[in-house]
Design brief:
It contains 17 helices and 20 strands. The protein is an alpha+beta fold. It folds into 4 domains: 129 residues, PAS domain (Beta-Lactamase); 107 residues, PAS domain (Beta-Lactamase, 2-Layer Sandwich), CATH 3.30.450.20; 117 residues, PAS domain (Beta-Lactamase, 2-Layer Sandwich), CATH 3.30.450.20; 101 residues, PAS domain (Beta-Lactamase). It is flat and about 130 Å long. It is an enzyme of class 2 (transferase).
């Protein structure tokens, strides 16, 4: 026998007749053979395996895609890399479980096992043979076990807060607890021994406001043999506790009634429910008394409750809110500013699609009855969703922010003016730069008596090497003394204005101490008149 055929090669349908028994045996065991010639990218599956997936014998070709294209996308992420490792020579065999799609679209679980029977000199697989096993039933059983384990795990987490019991009431009213699970101590604050012969201790812990209802429902259940629904509070040393449970009654030959049931600690749930009800009461109270225009709305129907102040803002009668279609038609088509429709809808959509992760907050304009536009800030949150994740109920508030918007517009107006002023100053600075660089007359920029800029001509007039040498000098150096400078300021004094220039003839001093008569033309720059910023032209 050719060694390339190998032992597994005998079981393929196109081999010698002695393989038929092997193939039949494998089929009975739920195993189906395959043979893969890697270099030709050709693979042969038994016809029985094709039929297992619902394909007529011979319908499959021999390309590798007949296998790989049918692997479930989630399983391909692990199975294909494992098979590839075998092809690349990193391992000699593989075993992978994955789902294959049947002809009718259903999925079957299979276990694919393979072994390299021929390798190339470089160590890569040249030929593989293996078996396919139908493990759908095993996988389903495994998943059922996992689901059962999950249920048990969830139940075990709750067991410390649940106890099971038998409760017996005799004709005279005496009550006992023949059986109680260990959690009675944790849940009810008593031990099983304490209440086995007399349940009075249990009743003594029941909240006074609930004891009568508890006894009445127990008597009703005993008389009618109906399920006893328990819902009451306990007063324990560490605080109040809420219990809920059910018990199923059976009348005994002696006339007593025994209930088999359970009690569970639902304190956390009750507290959350109370908090939610308190919050809703606060919201509804706020809707009556606040001026913020609160609302509680059914998202699907549009029906809801709106504070009267909201109607006042719109100049509507409260009757509008009782006619859902009429109100929303008015809101979207007559009252809402056309420029704000898209942004408001987008705010709702983002909140709904994110399932509340993105907060609902929108600013928009509504036309009041007087005809003026009122700016509204709407903030809200969906508090109820259906099983498909669709919004059901939304609570929020409408706040009239018209005055705030007016202030914002005023601030924006001032910012625009400031921006315009900065642009003008930049333009002026650019013009001054050109002027300082190219004018044939001496120029200097003075700020609080110090020279901030000087041009080459000014340096020449006063006998300095270059303009940089004059930067930072006090203008007092250009006058004979302090008194001469004060005389100069007295002359120019109030005549210095941002809009017009002033011209004077004055005696100035050079760097070497010599004096000369100069013609000065100057003006205050319009940045900050209190800062004493001026520009001067000096001509000898």
């Amino acid at each position: 026998m050719n060694t390339e055929t190998g032992r597994l090669g005998k079981i393929l349908p196109d081999q010698q007749s002695s393989a038929i028994d092997h193939a039949s045996l494998l089929q009975q065991l739920g195993e189906f053979a395959w043979d893969w010639h890697v270099s030709e990218n050709e693979i042969h599956f038994s016809e029985q395996f094709q039929e297992l997936l619902g394909y007529p014998a011979g319908e499959w070709g021999h390309h590798l895609d007949e296998w790989f294209s049918r692997i479930h996308p989630e399983d391909a992420k692990s199975s294909i890399p494992a098979i590839r490792a075998c092809l690349e020579g990193r391992t000699n065999q593989f075993s992978e479980d994955h789902r294959l799609q049947c002809r009718d679209g259903q999925w079957k679980w299979v276990r694919a096992r393979g072994v390299v029977i021929i390798k190339s000199p470089s160590g890569r697989a040249v030929r593989l043979q293996g078996l396919m096993s139908d493990i759908t039933v095993q996988r389903e059983r495994k998943e059922q076990i996992l689901r059962s384990q999950a249920v048990l795990a969830n139940l075990s987490r709750e067991l410390p807060r649940v106890f099971f019991y038998q409760f017996q009431r005799f004709a005279g009213g005496h009550c006992t607890v023949p059986y109680a699970s260990d959690a009675i101590d944790t849940v009810h604050g008593v031990s099983a021994n304490q209440v086995r012969d007399n349940a009075a201790t249990m009743f003594s812990l029941v909240h006074p406001d609930d004891i009568e209802n508890l006894r009445d429902t127990m008597k009703e259940s005993a008389m009618r043999l109906h399920v006893w629904h328990l819902d009451y509070r306990l007063r324990l040393k560490n605080g109040e506790r809420h219990l809920f449970g059910e018990a199923y009654p059976t009348r005994q030959d002696d006339g007593s009634v025994i209930w088999h049931g359970f009690l569970v600690d639902v304190t956390d749930r009750k507290i959350r429910e109370q908090q939610m009800r308190a919050t809703e009461r606060q919201l509804h109270a706020a809707m009556r008394f606040t001026s913020l225009g609160m609302f509680d709305m059914n998202v699907q129907t549009g029906h809801g409750q709106f504070a009267p102040e909201y109607a006042e803002i719109l100049g509507l009668s409260q009757d509008y809110f009782n006619h859902t279609e009429k109100f929303w038609d008015f809101f979207w088509n007559d009252s809402l500013h056309p420029d704000d429709v898209a942004s408001l809808k987008l705010a709702y959509q983002n909140h709904f699609k994110s399932h509340g992760e993105i907060a609902f907050k929108a600013e928009f304009r509504l036309r009041a009855k007087s005809g003026e536009w009122r700016w509204m800030l709407s903030v809200g949150n969906v508090v109820e969703w259906d099983e498909n994740g669709r919004a059901l109920r939304m609570i929020g508030t409408h706040l009239d922010i018209t005055e705030r918007k007016k202030h914002e517009l005023e601030v924006k107006h001032y910012e625009d003016l400031l921006r315009s002023g900065r642009d003008r100053y930049k333009k002026l600075a650019s013009e001054l730069e050109i002027l300082f660089s190219h004018t044939p007359i001496g120029l200097m920029l003075v700020h609080n008596k110090q020279i901030m800029r000087a041009n080459p001509k000014l340096a020449q007039v006063f006998g300095y090497r270059d303009p940089k040498e004059m930067i930072g000098l006090s203008v007092l150096n250009m006058h004979a003394n302090e008194a001469a400078y004060q005389d100069f300021r007295a002359i120019v004094g109030e005549k210095l204005q941002p809009e017009t220039a002033i011209e004077v003839i004055h005696r100035l001093k050079r760097k070497d101490g010599s004096f000369f008569e100069a013609r000065l033309v100057g003006r205050i720059l319009p940045f900050d008149q209190t800062a004493d910023t001026m520009v001067w032209m000096v001509e000898a």
